[in-house]
Design a protein that fits this description.
The longest helix has 15 residues, at 99-113. It is built from five helices and three strands. The two termini are 26 Å apart. Helices cover 50% and strands 14% of the residues. It is α/β, with parallel strands linked by helices. The chain has a three-stranded parallel β-sheet with strand order 2-1-3.
Length: 115
């Protein structure tokens, strides 16, 4: 992960971290578990190093709940992938659509969050 940058994505798994990095070229970190919140000091560090921090968790009950908790606690926006072909996370979304569609969707969602 770079020391600083425009955008950091917080997600829930290594496969999503790798997909986000490889497909859209954005640094990402993964939580150790969807049931554990990170320390406030860790989020404060990320927010000081990156201009924008967003959450992209699974589009299922657990992921939606976690995204809402993160947004409320840390004041960071979140979004989800479309549930195309049962895609609930970014890596499945890429696999079930196309790389170009995934990039366009990701960039559109980020832009909309910060309009």
């Amino acid at each position: 992960m770079p020391k600083s940058g425009e955008l950091l994505v917080i997600t829930k798994s290594l496969k999503d971290v790798m997909s986000i990095h490889d497909i859209v070229g954005v640094p990402a970190i993964g939580l150790q578990s969807e049931s554990v919140m990170m320390k406030d000091s860790v989020m404060d560090e990320y927010k000081s190093r990156f201009k924008k921090v967003v959450c992209l968790f699974d589009n299922d009950d657990a992921g939606i709940k976690l995204a809402k908790e993160f947004s409320k606690r840390y004041n960071v926006p979140h979004f989800f992938v479309l549930p195309i072909s049962n895609s609930k996370d970014f890596s499945d979304f890429v696999k079930n659509t196309t790389i170009n569609f995934s990039i366009e969707y990701f960039n559109k969602k980020i832009k909309k969050l910060y309009e």
